[in-house]
Design brief:
Blueprint lengths: L8 E4 L3 H11 L4 E5 L4 E5 L4 E5 L13 E4 L3 H10 L9 E2 L3 E7 L5 E7 L11 H19 L5 H4 L2 E8 L7 E2 L1 H9 L9 E12 L2 E12 L2 E14 L2 E11 L7
Length: about 260
């Protein structure tokens, strides 16, 4: 036997019309089939069909499969559902490799609104521009925390074998343990009034992404200007920093 693909994913529902309104009008899925006679509806989810089989007496508590629908922005989807008065099972959850929001349909079937961190969806790989945006978003989120004195944003996305350079060091730091010692020495001591991540550019080579940008940070009337190069590596857990190199911005003057 050879499986050729998936024809549909099906939920059983007690009221087909009410369920169809939820998937069609609330979630905005294109409805392709609707039959009261057959108690059946189908919706186009992009790369798979979601089918509803109505008129079913359901148990008080439903346990079983779930369908994950890819969206561009989970937080924006959550905000939209709140405006519509739709009940959700909590708020968006960030799992680093993805972000997800659980939404029960009128019968309690769970629908997951989902976005992968690398920008891919279904069987469609992320485009290079989507992957670049994902890498820059990781860096910006870590910089946001750094500006408040929290270096954990960088530590959480650094590989165990990360290497690190900056102009205050006499030699390269090797490994996450050494980088953690450095970052912990400045925890709570950095508080920026503002910063800018300027002209970020991501270049890809296989499973490596090289991010370069200029950085300006301001604190207590002082301005620091830096260049940064980060080498990210694609891992099963998502993009992780394998190499960091900071340098001062400015020309080299010969004596």
């Amino acid at each position: 036997m050879k499986i050729r693909g998936t024809d549909f994913v099906m939920y059983q529902v007690s009221d087909l019309a009410a369920a169809a309104r939820f998937y069609r009008d609330t979630l905005g899925l294109p409805q392709e089939v609707y039959s009261e006679e057959w108690q059946w509806a189908e919706f186009n989810c992009g790369n798979v069909t979601l089918a509803l089989h109505g008129g079913v007496k359901l148990p008080a508590e439903i346990a079983g499969g779930r369908v994950a629908l890819a969206v561009e922005d989970v937080q924006a989807a959550y905000d939209e559902l709140k405006q519509k008065g739709v009940r959700t099972a909590g708020g968006p959850q960030d799992f680093k490799v993805c972000c997800a929001l659980e939404v029960p349909d009128p019968d309690g079937n769970t629908v997951i609104l989902h976005r992968r961190a690398d920008g891919s969806w279904g069987q469609h790989p992320a485009t290079e521009s989507e992957e670049a945006a994902a890498v820059i978003a990781l860096e910006r989120a870590a910089l946001d925390r750094w500006a408040q004195g929290d270096p954990s944003g960088f530590l959480e996305i650094s590989s165990p074998d990360v290497v690190y350079f900056d102009p205050t060091l006499e030699r390269r730091l090797d490994g996450l343990e050494a980088l953690t010692r450095l970052y912990e020495s400045v925890r709570g001591k950095i508080h920026l009034t503002r910063y800018e991540l300027i002209h970020p550019k991501v270049q890809f080579c296989g499973d490596a992404a090289v991010l370069t940008y200029n950085y300006v940070g301001e604190s207590a009337g002082r301005t620091g200007r830096w260049n940064c190069t980060e080498v990210y590596r694609r891992t099963p857990a998502g993009w992780r920093i394998a190499q960091t190199h900071w340098s001062f911005t400015g020309p080299f003057h010969k004596q």
